[in-house]
Amino acid sequence: MSRRPRRNHTPAFKAKVALAAVKGDRTIAQLAEQFDAHPNQIMAWKAQLEGGASEVFGSGSVTAAVPAVDVKSLHAKIGEQR
User: Fold this and answer.
1) Spatial CB neighbours of 15, under 8 Å, sequence gap ≥ 6
2) First-residue to last-residue Cα distance in the chain
3) By Cβ atoms counted within 10 A, which residue in 3, 4, 20, 79 is the most buried?
4) What would the mean pLDDT of 48-73 be, rounded to a whole number?
5) What is the pLDDT of residues 41-60, one digit of tens each?
6) Given CA atoms 30, 34, 40, 45 in this order, what sign does their dihedral have?
7) Is residue 79, in this structure, part of any structural domain at all?
8) Does the residue 66 lie in any domain?
């Protein structure tokens, strides 16, 4: 019996499975069978979702993923290149 190759699940798939686990309509074993994932992995994704859920509703002090840009300096650089 050969081992199954390691799989990389997309974040969208992980979120879908974790949300199904949080919903609680089905058992973890049923979800594992439905999504072809190990029950321990589903529990880890569920815990990760529950642990990070408070960040969604956190204060506005969280820095944006994109750094603030000085528009005037960028326009000046564009003008220099012309």
Assistant:
1) 49
2) 65
3) 20
4) 76
5) 999 999 999 998 888 887 66
6) negative
7) no
8) no
